[in-house]
């Protein structure tokens, strides 16, 4: 699409500025939502994308697919969905996917303010909502819905035609998660007319500041690799089969190849000054610490700082260092408020970064790469980038995903820089050299080339893709990785011998969990008698940050053992988690004090309760409980988690999902994994640490200075006979 100079400014509801001014004088003036909307309109008009709205609308009138690039902060995520609502073809909802829930929620909040509407489920009239795992906040009037990629995939499973949407916007596509690659493949099928249930065309916008526009445009332009490759629903398959039997040509509407529009939005509102180190640093945490205090002591307020680190542990240790040092600063300096931000943090704690700091206080946000894209953190003027991130990688030898600390890509570094300069000019300090930056990979390797694909393959199967190997992937994954995933799904009984999805597989695909945890939930529902309630409690713990406050020294470990003693279970960590959840849930007076007494994170426990509520609702909906039963508040008091028979049922349910995560005791006293025959030690954080038992099941294999099994319970080898026969 050709670039076009500024179009006359129009307000979002299509009125002219003059008309808008008239309304400002009217009775709406006392409505705080409307007042905020009018105020924000002024800043919206200054965004580079504002003058391109006619181009964008025209592109989508003409073609069904638009690939939009534009610098960080040019207004893509907040403005484009609002422009689309004014188009004639847009009678339904616009979905906007985000790689992370923190971005989905904060964007929805911002756009609700810009549109002068309440947010999400707070009002039936709300026009803007969001949907993230374990939290759906939409209303019957929702027109723009920000949702994580995983949630859109879940919706695709329920409604393959995406009939509630006029448009799907895939934002931050450069991150190339497995989920986004699946979404792109399914959307390609939809725009090529594979799904005949759709009465009107689905419009698709793919956006990013740093993506390969030409490659994505080509992907949507090219024909489908095979007719059925991106999935159909049951009815369509029946039609196709019928046509084949009768020898007719299939009755599916023939795809009319439509060209793809591309558009680039030039410029950003505020500049960001870049600084590099002269020499590489040996101790990036120390360098970050020094940089934070240099900024704090030299730069005027306001000016919050956003620091990119690798993970929860580094964030927590830097937080401690900063807080200890800040106590000694004289009163001449503003105060410091350190806020951590990482994926396992509960939602309400994540959202604290968006609140303004108290007067005379500078926010220092210590974040993993979850704040790297899409988010605007109000107040941030300085970004400090350590240049590293934890990246998930499949390790063939172990047949497991591991998190490894690796240098980021140039694209990530540019995204990080783009978190400054959003409300005013900013500065980005890269804690590496210019040469270091130049030597980074341009883009990160797509997740699909480096991760376990079992969840992806199951999603494809559940969405009616008969042969995942011929799915239209933007970057096809290696064949052996796909075959491994198929094998794992067979092991989980999610697929039948002929490769079709089984009843179990369909049920797992509907749960917002990995196939392994989904399988555990199903097995617990099917055990005799069922142990679903208890298993949900444990799975909820595994879905959030560690509930036990970290104990580092021998002394604190002893203190913790005393404080938590009555919760520890001899069988290991799974039943200990259950005991902790049940004791917390049964505490009716002061849960916070209870958590403190037991050296348990109250914040993590609140998340566990949230997740367990959602999982219980989903299991009820999926009819995983015998008919007539329900979850009731009194559940928590009735179960004795010391019960050996119950322990056996629960651990057997875990074994059905984690059959690849078993180790047995060898005559020399070490443990060796069943898969890969690796030596592995019990992690010091486990209640089984230092104990010798005949065999173990574990949740995670982590490699630090040596290989550890984390989240461990003792099992009996004879239990495996049931499992493998
Ligand atoms: N929560 C917020 N508070 C204050 N300003 C905001 C907020 N969200 C967005 N903005 C303003 O809107 C601008 C555009 O944000 P938007 O997220 O739409 O840009 P973008 O082009 O999608 O950026 P990116 O590629 O970095 O995600 C920001 O630079 C900022 O000025």
UniProtKB/TrEMBL annotation:
Enzyme Commission no: 3.6.4.13
Top-level taxon of the source organism: Eukaryota
Segments for region (Disordered): 1-37, 224-260
EC class (word): hydrolase
Protein name as annotated: RNA helicase
UniProt record, GO biological process: positive regulation of transcription by RNA polymerase I
InterPro entries: DEAD-box_helicase_OB_fold, DEAD/DEAH_box_helicase_dom, DNA/RNA_helicase_DEAH_CS, Helicase-assoc_dom, Helicase_ATP-bd, Helicase_C-like, P-loop_NTPase
GO terms for MF: ATP binding; double-stranded RNA binding; hydrolase activity; RNA helicase activity
One Gene Ontology cellular component annotation held by this UniProt entry: ribonucleoprotein complex
Reactions listed under catalytic activity: ATP + H2O = ADP + phosphate + H(+)
Helicase C-terminal domain segment(s): 288-464
Record keywords, A-Z: ATP-binding, Helicase, Hydrolase, Nucleotide-binding
Keyword ATP-binding: yes
């Amino acid at each position: 699409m050709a670039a076009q100079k500024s179009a006359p400014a129009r307000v979002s509801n299509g009125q002219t500025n003059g008309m808008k001014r008239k309304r400002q004088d009217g009775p709406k003036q006392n409505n705080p939502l409307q007042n905020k909307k009018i105020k924000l309109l002024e800043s919206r008009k200054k965004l580079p994308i504002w003058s391109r709205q006619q181009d964008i609308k025209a592109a989508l009138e003409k073609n069904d697919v638009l690939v939009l690039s534009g610098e960080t902060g040019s207004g893509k995520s907040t403005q484009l969905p609002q422009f689309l609502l004014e188009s004639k073809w847009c009678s339904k909802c616009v979905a906007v996917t985000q790689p992370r829930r923190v971005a989905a929620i904060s964007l929805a909040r911002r756009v609700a303010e810009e549109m002068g509407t309440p947010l999400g489920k707070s009002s039936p009239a709300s026009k803007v909502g969001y949907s993230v795992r374990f939290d759906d906040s939409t209303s019957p009037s929702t027109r723009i819905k920000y949702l994580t990629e995983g949630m859109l995939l879940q919706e695709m499973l329920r409604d393959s035609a995406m009939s509630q949407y006029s448009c799907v916007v895939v934002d931050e596509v450069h991150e190339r998660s497995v989920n986004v690659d699946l979404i792109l493949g399914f959307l390609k099928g939809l725009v090529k007319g594979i799904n005949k249930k759709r009465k009107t065309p689905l419009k698709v916008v793919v956006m990013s500041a740093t993506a390969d526009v030409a490659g994505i445009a080509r992907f949507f332009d090219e024909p489908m690799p095979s007719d059925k490759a991106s999935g159909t629903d049951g009815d369509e398959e029946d039609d196709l089969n019928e046509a084949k039997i009768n020898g007719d040509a299939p009755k599916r509407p023939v795809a009319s190849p439509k060209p793809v529009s591309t558009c680039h939005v030039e410029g950003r509102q505020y500049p960001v000054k870049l600084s590099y180190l002269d020499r590489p640093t040996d101790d990036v945490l120390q360098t970050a610490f020094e940089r934070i205090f240099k900024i704090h002591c030299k730069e005027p307020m306001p000016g919050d700082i956003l620091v990119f680190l690798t993970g929860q542990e580094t964030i927590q240790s830097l937080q401690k260092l900063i807080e200890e040092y800040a106590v000694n600063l004289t009163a001449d300096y503003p105060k410091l408020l350190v806020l951590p931000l990482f994926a396992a943090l509960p939602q309400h704690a994540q959202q604290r970064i968006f609140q303004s700091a108290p007067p005379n206080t500078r926010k220092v946000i210590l974040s993993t790469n979850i704040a790297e894209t899409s988010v605007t953190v109000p107040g941030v003027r300085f970004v400090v980038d350590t240049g590293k991130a934890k990246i998930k990688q499949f390790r063939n030898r172990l047949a497991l995903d591991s998190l490894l600390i690796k240098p980021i890509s140039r694209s990530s570094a540019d995204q990080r820089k783009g978190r400054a300069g959003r409300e005013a000019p900013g500065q980005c300090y890269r804690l590496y050299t210019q040469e270091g930056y130049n030597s980074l990979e341009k883009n990160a390797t797509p997740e699909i080339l480096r991760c376990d694909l079992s969840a992806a393959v199951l999603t494809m199967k559940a969405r009616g893709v008969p042969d995942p190997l011929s799915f239209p992937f933007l970057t096809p994954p290696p064949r052996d990785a796909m075959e491994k995933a198929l094998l794992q799904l067979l092991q989980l009984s999610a697929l039948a011998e002929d490769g079709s999805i089984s009843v179990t597989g369909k049920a797992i695909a509907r749960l917002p969990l990995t196939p392994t945890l989904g399988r555990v939930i199903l097995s617990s529902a099917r055990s005799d008698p069922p142990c679903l309630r208890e298993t949900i409690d444990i799975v909820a713990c595994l879905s959030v940050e560690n509930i036990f406050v970290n104990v580092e020294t021998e002394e604190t470990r002893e203190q913790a053992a005393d404080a938590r003693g009555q919760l520890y279970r001899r069988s290991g960590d799974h039943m200990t988690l259950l005991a902790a959840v049940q004791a917390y849930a049964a505490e009716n007076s002061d849960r916070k004090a209870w958590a403190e007494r037991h050296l348990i994170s109250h914040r993590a426990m609140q998340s566990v309760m949230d997740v367990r509520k959602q999982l219980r609702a989903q299991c009820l909906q999926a009819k995983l409980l015998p008919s007539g039963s329900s979850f009731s508040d009194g559940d928590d008091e009735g179960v004795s988690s010391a019960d050996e028979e119950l322990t056996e049922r629960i651990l057997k349910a875990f074994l059905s999902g984690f059959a690849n995560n078993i180790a047995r005791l060898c005559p020399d006293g070490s443990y060796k994994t069943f898969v890969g025959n690796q030596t592995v030690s019990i992690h010091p954080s486990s209640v089984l640490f230092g104990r010798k038992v005949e065999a173990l099941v574990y949740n995670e294999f982590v490699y630090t200075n040596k290989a550890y099994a984390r989240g461990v319970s003792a099992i009996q080898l004879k239990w495996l006979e049931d499992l493998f026969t």
